[in-house]
Structure formats: structure tokens, C-alpha cells
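Field reference: "sequence" (input) and "structure" (output). Example, N-acetylmuramoyl-L-alanine amidase:
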Amino acid sequence: MASPLSADRLLRALKAEGVRVVEHRSWRTHNRNHAGSWGPVHGVMIHHTVTRGTDSSVELCYNGHSSLPGPLCHGVIAKDGTVYMVGHGRANHAGAGDGDVLAAVIAERALPPDNETDTDGNRHFYGFECINMGDNKDPWPPEQVSAIVRASAAICRAHGWGKEGTTSVIGHLEWQPGKIDPRGPGVSMSDVRRRVAERLRHPADWDPEEDDMPLSDEDIRKVAVAAARQVALYKDERLDRRDARQMWDDAASPHTTWQFRPEGAERDAWGYLSRTHAEVVALRAAVAELASAVAAGSDSVDADDLVARIERAIASASGGD
């Protein structure tokens, strides 16, 4: 049995997960609790608003409309990733859905098809409305999808959900037959669940964009050792840790690195580099000599002699081979 988070705990959880939060009006006491209970809660449900514009969408979700009074969710996720809190308690967002889906959410197992409307979802789910037309054309910016992931992970983390899977986060389309939300380019519930699961493997303040840090020397050494072991296995050879470390030490030596020579090659890496350098130097000298001769109007340049001198320069500079 999971009791809903208090308004303060919910707010702290969202902020700890890196969600940018705006508290809208009297959201802490704005609910539909008089119409039924809220809780026990078992998951998070994602919707789209079928509206444009942040201010008007937030007001709509706070107030509701003539046929459906507000709040219509607990938080509104704007295009820029800001989450506007509009309610705390029972909210008109999930409606009646499939009890088999709820059972799967509780058990954190694969979701069955939603083909019934026999269970009150408003009682059991946190709800987030995301500003999008839902016409399969209106894009979902990365900032908005990231906020969906962070807000969902925050609630899962606070309740201890997601240990056996990630189906604690579902879309309205997976709950109630006939619903399509969330829909559009840039969002899918399978991707959201995958990213929520990844977040839950890290501390709440984890930022995947900052996780791509340069490798330390020790990290590089470990990678080299692993690579060396794979090479040995590929060649069907045995390689112990001492041999692997020696391969790393050898690979770390600039001298040894330049002596790398692929099978079938005429020379090692340093040989190719030094020969190329010698050819460039010799050719630049030859071009300079030809340019001088042309500028002076001379017709006494012996082409065969010039080529022979270039070849001798190259041979001398590259060790005579």
C-alpha cells in the first residue's frame, strides 16, 4: 500500500531529480478529494493537453472546463521542461481504465492490452499533462521529454518503485481504450521507461550529459588490458594479467607505438611517416628550384637529374630503403 507523497515531499523529490518546478496558485490544496479517495498510489501516468501555449494550458489544467472540473493533473510539463504544479490529491486525469493494467503496474511486469474500463485510475496514479497538440505533428522538444523522465523518476524513487522494472510509468493510451496520448515525434513510452530505469540506477542529481567525462589514465589502462585480452583470445592464445599489463606498458610507449607494422606492410608506422616527410621536403625543394629556373627564364634545368636528386634525398632521409 503506497500512500501519496505529501506536497512538500513531492516538491523535494522533483527538485532533487533536477526538475525545474513552478508552484501555481494554491496547488497544494487543489484537488477532487471530495469526489473520491486518492490512494493507494501505484504509478505515474503521462498525457498530452491538445493545447498550445504555456499560460493558457496551465490555467486549463488548474481550472478544468465545463464538462470536467480541475485539477486535470498534478503537474503540467511545458515545452521548455518546466513543470507547473497545479494540484495535489485526486485529479481528473486518468479516468476509468483496465484493472489488468493496474495489476501489471503494481507487479512491475509487462503491460497487457488495455481493453476494459473497470478501474478508477484517478485514485491510483499521479498525472502529468504535457503541452502538445497530440496531432502527431507537434514535436516534443528534448527538454520536455527529459522533464517527463525526471519527474517520473523522482516519484518512482520516492516510493521505491522501479526495482523490478519500469512499468510504474505508463501513458494514458496504455490505460484507457481509445486514448492516444502521449503521441507525436520525439516521445514514446518505451523510451521514457528505459530512461527512467537508467536514472534510477544513479543518484537523483545524476546528469547524463555530464556523465560523459574524460577517461582517467587508470581507465585507459583497464581498457587497453581488456582489449589486449580480446586480441589474445581472438588469436586463440592464453594471456594472463601480467602479460596484459606488459602489452599495455608497451602500447603506452611512443617508441613501440610507432613501430606498429600491420601484416603485409613494407614498413612500420614510423617508416611510412618519415618517408612521407622526406618526400614532401624533397618535392618542396624541387618545386622551389623549378620555380626559380622558370622565373629566371632558364632552359638549362635537367629533368632527369632533378628527379634523381629527389630520389637520393628521399632515400637519405628515410634511411636508404
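The mean pLDDT is 85.
The chain is about 40% helix and 10% strand.
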